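Thread: quick sanity check before group meeting

JM: Hey all, I'm pulling together slides for Thursday and realized we never actually wrote out the predicted structure for the chain we discussed last week. Dropping the sequence here so it's in one place. If anyone has concerns about the input, flag it before I start.
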Amino acid sequence: MYRIAIVDDLPEERETLRGFLQRYGAERKLALSADEYADGEGFLAGYENNYDIVLMDIEMQGIDGMETARRLRERDEKVCLLFVTHMANYAVQGYGVRALDFLVKPVGYENFSMKMDRAVVAAERARKKEIIVSTAEGDRRLPIDELYYVEVMNHTLIYHTKGGALSVRGPIRDCETLLAPYDFARCNKSYLVNMSYVTEIRRNEIRVGDALLPIGSTRRQEFLRRLAEYMGDIVL
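JM (edit): ok, ran it. Output follows.
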């Protein structure tokens, strides 16, 4: 499922893009979902890094699309951004907010589908190192490179990230399966560690970021073996 935001202050323009997305998904056999926003303020107000592609009109009332994009990039560096505009000369400014491409109004379907092909490839590349975490408030995209370790406490999983802690209900075994492709390993029964953040190994502890975590005697040998494979060296 690719999650897409349409941000345009004109209802007829949003309707056109939604229709194009429905046709594109059917032709490419892709599952797409789309949310619509009538202005940049509304889009940013509820933004939680939960979109793969953003279709952004530039000439909007209130804060325009370019300023909306600047504020978006303060929150999300990876989401794929396509501008929609009447004026192609905005392209130079688009580099500053890392826009993938531009759609010039009136948008034709053939051009739209070509640009969407690029956007889907870029979105897929960006999401390969992300997981989806289901919280009580809804699904959250969590970049792997922002996750230090996962802790289980009383059937609650606590994701310790650069942005703070995120808690969800669930068994650590399911989390271990989810993170298996991304070089995570258990240092004891309660902690699942991102090996890229292991900076120190002591007799009974390891340092992960700023935290010292206990390493269990029954898991020590296997953990060090996994860490050695990850680092391409021998850890004593």
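AS: nice. DSSP finds seven helices and 15 strands in the chain. Residues 3 and 52 are 5 Å apart (CA to CA).
JM: adding both to the slides.
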